[in-house]
C-alpha cells in the first residue's frame, strides 16, 4: 500500500466528498461478504468515517470504519466496498459503553488498528 494512506480520508477510488450522495442505508461488503448497512457517515476533513450496523452478523454491535478503508462506493447499486475481510472488521476495537464515536482515544485506537492492514 501507499505510504500516503490516511485512515480518516476517503481514498480517490471511493469518490466521496461532502457534496456526494448520502450513503446512509447502503449495504457494506467486506472482501469476503456482506457485513451490514451504513448507519452514519461523515465527511469531516481528517476524521471521515462510516458507522456500520452489523445486524445479526455481530448482533448488537456497530462498527466504525475509517474512510480510508473504503475501496469504492457504487451509488447505482447503493453498496460500499471495504478492502478488509470480515474477521479484520469483527476484531476491530469495540466501542465501550459511555464512549462516543468522536472520542480521541478511541479514534486513535481504531486508526492504529486499521493502519496495520495498510502497510504500517
TrEMBL record:
GO cellular component assignments: plasma membrane light-harvesting complex
TM region positions: none
Superkingdom in the source lineage: Bacteria
GO biological process, one term: photosynthesis, light reaction
Name of the protein in question: PRC-barrel domain containing protein
Amino acid at each position: 500500500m501507499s505510504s500516503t494512506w490516511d485512515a480518516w480520508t476517503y481514498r480517490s477510488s471511493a469518490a466521496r466528498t461532502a457534496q456526494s450522495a448520502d450513503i446512509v442505508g447502503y449495504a457494506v461488503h467486506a472482501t469476503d461478504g456482506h457485513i451490514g448497512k451504513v448507519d452514519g457517515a461523515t465527511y469531516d476533513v481528517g476524521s471521515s468515517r462510516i458507522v456500520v450496523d452489523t445486524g445479526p452478523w455481530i448482533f448488537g454491535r456497530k462498527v466504525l470504519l475509517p474512510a480510508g478503508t473504503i475501496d469504492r462506493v457504487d451509488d447505482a447499486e447503493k453498496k460500499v466496498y471495504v478492502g478488509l475481510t470480515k474477521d479484520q472488521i469483527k476484531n476491530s476495537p469495540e466501542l465501550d459503553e459511555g464512549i462516543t464515536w468522536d472520542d480521541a482515544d478511541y479514534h486513535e485506537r481504531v486508526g492504529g488498528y486499521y493502519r496495520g492492514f495498510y502497510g504500517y
